[in-house]
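Section 4.2 – Deliverable D4.2 (structural model, holo form)

The reporting period included a commitment to supply a predicted holo structure for the target in complex with zinc ion. Inputs used:
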Amino acid sequence: MRVVLLEPPPSGQRESSAASLAEALAVPRISLGDLMRAHISQGTELGTQSAEMINSGRLLPDALITAVVGDYVVRATDAGFLLEGHPRSAAQALALDELLRELGQPLDCVFYLRLAEEELERRVLSLTGRRVCREDGTHVFEPSQEPYVVPAACGVCGGELYQRAVDGDNSVRGRFRSFEAMQEPIAQHYARQDLLVTVEVVGSPHDVAARALAALREHRR
Ligand SMILES: [Zn+2]
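Output (structure tokens):
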């Protein structure tokens, strides 16, 4: 089975549903980041090209990114995959479609995990609770468990804590909004091909994966 996973940005120590989903579908979990790092560390031609671009501060062209995914699919034809971190635009989605069509390995479905309102609020609360020590910027505190109690002073050195601008409410919400704005056209691209299975993210990663599988069965009827 060949599956693309569109999911919300990672949030603190929160596990994603990808592991549960990959296990239930019995497919390897692959991420563009991991594939890219493997090419770079093994010094393949694609890796060398990517490293040069990254080092000179350039964005990787879509053709190069698609080639990295293609290289994996060619080598692992029967295994299938759950692909994370790609595509990141409708143009990349189109390139991926073409690649998989050429290889005779089209996608079976695309899971679109969207944050439910209450889950979004929970993540905003968690992320805006991050505090940094004025004495030492490496002393960072994140409220990992509910209720989110923000400590009054640094637990390491007793220094005063403050909230960085990037952890402010507007910044955090802005990042979630721009991420959603980036994903929406990709989701629509797959919806037009009737591949999209939309699932609300609320509850544990395991719950989300279970609901995603139920939604997939429903979608295929
Ligand atoms: Zn400190």
